[in-house]
Automatic annotation (TrEMBL):
Pfam families: Lpp-LpqN. This is LpqN/LpqT family lipoprotein. InterPro entries: Lipoprotein_LpqN/LpqT-like (IPR019674). Gene3D superfamilies: Mog1/PsbP, alpha/beta/alpha sandwich. Residues 19-51 are annotated as: Disordered. Residues 1-18 form the signal peptide. It comes from the Bacteria.
Length: 226
């Protein structure tokens, strides 16, 4: 299993600093952040001879099933492509895109706070007996580990007609500040493995409408070509 497994435990919520730059304070694939640092490995957390249970997070699903994870960057040969739609007020993060991310966009329109709403796209390939529904079932677990996590609305299907997907959102507390995060996970079966894409929106609590609208458009209109 590669070091990139930690990527799915942090979402956008901990890859963005208080100033809103997608690179400041963000974890690298080899540096866990947020709840990952205190969460035991799935194998270590299980009681001896305990009956098998459904993986609670994607990280646990990867470990439990002995899958190999490979970080995918834009342009990698053989990998699906993800093209984000144009949205008023949003622009490509350019050089601010984290090196471990597939892509990222930031909001430059009018907003109530100095914090910059952003959407970070992650992609990994899982090699082995990976089941798309198993990944989707485990998708909600990462955000639930965030400090002070409070769900907003009802989680459920992510709005994709082409691939299995799951979306949820809520608030959490970072350094005493309440923030909002929303996430859509998409499972893309392929001949060489299962590709998992996550769209992660992050914003200040007062910017929820901006982040929510942005993620909805990205999730529903992003062009994913296998």
């Amino acid at each position: 299993m590669t070091r990139a497994v930690t990527r799915f435990a942090v979402a956008a919520a901990v890859v963005v600093s208080a100033c809103g730059s997608p690179t400041d304070g963000g974890p690298s694939p080899s540096t866990p952040a947020g709840p990952v640092t205190s969460a035991p490995p799935a194998a270590a957390a299980a009681e001896p001879n305990a009956a098998p249970t459904r993986a609670r997070t994607i990280r646990e699903y990867i470990a439990t099933n002995g899958l190999q994870e490979t970080v995918i960057h834009r342009g990698d040969a053989g990998a699906p492509s993800v093209d984000l739609p144009w949205m008023d007020g949003w622009e490509d993060a350019g050089s601010l895109t984290p090196e471990w991310a597939y892509s990222a966009i930031v909001y430059r329109g009018d907003r109530p706070e100095e914090y910059t709403p952003n959407i970070v796209v992650l992609m990994s390939k899982l090699t082995g007996a990976a089941d798309p529904q198993g990944v989707i079932d485990a998708a909600p677990g990462e955000l639930a580990d965030l400090a002070g996590w409070t769900p907003i609305g009802e989680p459920g299907p992510g709005g994709r007609d082409d691939y299995p997907s799951y979306r949820l959102g809520g608030t959490w507390v970072q350094n005493g500040v309440t923030k909002v995060v929303a996430q859509t996970t998409v499972a893309i079966p392929a001949d060489d493995g299962l590709y998992v894409v996550q769209f992660n929106a992050d914003a200040a609590q007062s910017e929820f409408d901006i982040a929510d609208a942005g993620l909805t458009t990205v999730t529903e209109q992003a062009i994913i070509l296998p």
